[in-house]
Design a protein that fits this description.
The protein is built from 6 helices and 8 strands; from the N terminus they run ββααβββαβαββαα. An 8-stranded mixed sheet has the order 1-2-3-4-5-6-8-7, with helices on both faces.
């Protein structure tokens, strides 16, 4: 049937729900995302915990974790969580944990899911491995689990996160003003999303940028990711 006489009602889509994510391993060339485990605690604390890494938590919903005991209690609790579902990012060369992220706000009926709790250690930030981490999650979301909308949200003051979202192919959708109260401060939340009809183009850009041919002998990129995304 076509649209009703008084106006459009939206595209007709399948009502088949997406698949709920399970704790599986996502393998890449630079990094592997493993389900969060108690065995990751020491490595994670070394790279994102303690006083020296406190600034990493400025825009996070929790933290910072200044002592290992508190950090261990939090990570141990998170290992049994299914929403958020947490992953540890493992460097494939050193086999050490270098960061963490999650899939959360899981809405299988509407096929919407969000990447969150993204925290990259200084050694992971601004590297091909960091880009590959998000690529692996996005590919899993769209190709394995069947979601139609992949969200990224952050504090509107978090300029690096907003820049990263745009670079990684997400589109800015607006700001929810006075959205949350976090650590006693008002938070406006910037919303970004990547949708299924954009994935083929964005995936091609990721794959071209991550290819060995895109980096010279000193590891410098030949083409910027934004230039390879198209659109």
């Amino acid at each position: 049937m076509g649209d009703l006489p008084y106006g459009p009602l939206g595209e007709r889509v399948s009502t088949t729900p997406a698949t709920r994510p399970e704790p599986i391993t996502l393998q890449g060339r630079n990094v592997t995302l493993e389900p969060l485990k108690p065995s990751h605690i020491d490595d994670l604390y070394a790279c994102i915990g303690g006083p020296s890494n406190a600034k990493l938590w400025d825009y996070m919903l929790d933290g910072p974790y200044l002592d290992q005991q508190t950090f261990k209690a939090t990570i141990t609790h998170r290992t049994s969580s299914t929403d958020p579902l947490f992953f540890t990012i493992i460097n494939n060369t050193t086999r050490e944990a270098v960061g963490s992220c999650s899939l959360h706000r899981i809405d299988t009926a509407n096929r919407v899911i969000e990447v969150g709790h993204v925290i990259f250690s200084p050694s992971l930030q601004r590297t091909p491995a960091a880009t590959e981490s998000i690529f692996l999650v996005a590919k899993h979301v769209f190709e394995d689990l069947g979601y139609r909308r992949f969200e990224w949200k952050c504090n509107d003051f978090n300029v690096p996160s907003k820049r990263a979202a745009l670079r990684l192919g997400f589109s800015f959708e607006g700001v929810f003003r006075r959205h949350m109260i976090i650590k006693g401060r008002s938070r406006d939340t910037a919303w970004f999303a990547l949708v299924d009809k954009e994935w083929a183009r964005v995936k091609a850009g990721f794959e071209r940028w991550l290819s060995e041919e895109n980096f010279d002998g000193e590891g410098r990129q030949r083409e910027r990711l934004e230039n390879l995304m198209g659109g």
